[in-house]
UniProtKB/TrEMBL annotation:
Entry keyword set: Dioxygenase, Flavonoid biosynthesis, Iron, Metal-binding, Oxidoreductase, Vitamin C
Cofactor: L-ascorbate
Name of the protein this chain belongs to: Fe2OG dioxygenase domain-containing protein
GO biological process, one term: flavonoid biosynthetic process
Upper taxonomic lineage: Eukaryota, Viridiplantae, Streptophyta, Embryophyta, Tracheophyta
Top-rank taxon, per record: Eukaryota
Gene3D superfamilies assigned to the protein according to its UniProt record, in alphabetical order: B-lactam Antibiotic, Isopenicillin N Synthase, Chain
Alphabetized PANTHER family for the sequence: OXOGLUTARATE/IRON-DEPENDENT DIOXYGENASE
Keyword Metal-binding recorded: yes
Species: Gossypium mustelinum (Cotton)
Alphabetized PROSITE patterns for the sequence: FE2OG_OXY (PS51471)
Keyword Metal-binding listed: yes
Length: 333
């Protein structure tokens, strides 16, 4: 039997939503969001020639928030616009065309069109469908999961991947310098040029009860860093000091999340951000995170230069694949 897509459920849910989408009172966004305060995550100008200033800003944001936005990042607006255009067009195709890219139920791989990734507390479901596929390096790309329709889907995604390297290199260089390491050491600890870029499209249909449901429940990303572009519908929330805040979008900015692997390599100096996504009553939200990840067989642990007797390692070293397996299969607490 086929999996029921949230996009289909949304078509017949005009006033209420099925019970499995209703969150407990501990999670319902209407009850747990700090009202009237929009979280002002730091905004960093990557084109600033004063590199020390950029490093300080990134260190501060990564240590205190685990999230920041970057502007003047070098990815052309047109490239981002075209990425979004084709992603939206894919989700607007009739169901059978999307199902051609569906993840097979028993598949080990994360890639493909799908509806639910993680087993959740109390069996709750998230109001979202998604498409996952790798966009870099070329040797890791599995075109089976790249839509052929719309016809420019592939070209536009390749172009986005190509323009990402500049931002990724700059971010890792600053994160590395900020720890007192050489500029290339953080990137090397993540696999250097073998790092994998995994694109996800989150498609959150309109939801009649955005006060009760969540698009994505609270989590930290397993990646090294995540670079996200949203459509114009707000909904991302970050947790700071145990409270949930809306994150304000800045036009043309990229939203950077510190993921678990950067937290680990930095031995806890940088924090992976706890975040979640709300849904909207009138509009479809869409977001395009790219998870920048170590190769699956690379062992990741606190950087040897950052640990000594006074600063013992705070994390175990593990192959990235092992880390993901443990996190995805652990019984949720
Ligand atoms: C994710 C995520 C947030 C958003 O997919 O990991 O956190 O705004 N998405 O869609
Ligand atoms: Ni996330």
């Amino acid at each position: 039997m086929g999996v029921e897509r949230v996009q289909e459920i949304a078509n017949f849910s005009k006033e209420t939503i099925p019970e499995e989408f209703i969150r407990t009172t501990y999670e319902q966004p209407a009850l747990t969001t700090v009202q009237g305060t929009v979280l002002e995550v730091p905004v960093i100008d990557l084109s600033d020639p004063d590199e020390e200033k950029v490093v300080r800003a990134i260190v501060d944001a990564s240590s205190n928030w685990g999230m920041f936005q970057v502007v003047n990042h070098g990815i052309p607006r047109e490239t981002v616009r075209k990425l979004k255009e084709v992603g939206k067009a894919f989700f607007e195709l009739p169901p059978h065309e999307k199902e051609a890219y569906a993840k097979s139920p028993g598949s080990q791989s994360i890639e493909g069109y799908g509806t639910k990734l993680q087993r959740e507390v109390e069996g709750k479901k998230a109001w979202v469908d998604h498409l996952f596929h790798k966009i870099w390096p070329p040797s890791e790309i599995n075109y089976q999961f790249w839509p052929k329709n719309p016809p420019s889907y592939r070209k536009n995604n390749k172009e986005y991947a190509k323009h990402m390297h500049g931002v990724v290199n700059k971010l890792f260089r600053c994160l590395s310098l900020g720890l007192g390491l050489e500029g290339n050491e953080m990137k090397e600890a993540m696999g250097g040029d073998n790092m994998v870029y995994l694109l996800k499209i989150n498609y959150y249909p309109q939801c009649p009860r955005p006060d009760l449901a969540l698009g994505v429940p609270a989590h930290t990303d397993m990646s090294a860093i995540t670079i996200l572009v949203p459509n114009d519908v707000q909904g991302l929330q970050a947790c700071k000091d145990d409270h949930w805040y809306d994150v304000e979008y800045i036009p043309n900015a990229l939203i950077v999340h510190i993921g678990d692997q950067v937290e680990i390599v930095s031995n806890g100096k940088y924090k992976s951000v706890l975040h979640r996504a709300k849904v909207n009553k009138e509009k479809t939200r869409i977001s395009w995170p790219v998870f920048v990840e170590p190769p699956s067989d690379l062992e990741v642990g606190p950087h040897p230069k950052l640990v000594n007797e006074a600063n013992p390692p705070k994390f175990e070293s593990k192959k990235y694949s092992q880390y993901c397996f443990c996190k995805l299969n652990k019984t949720p607490k």
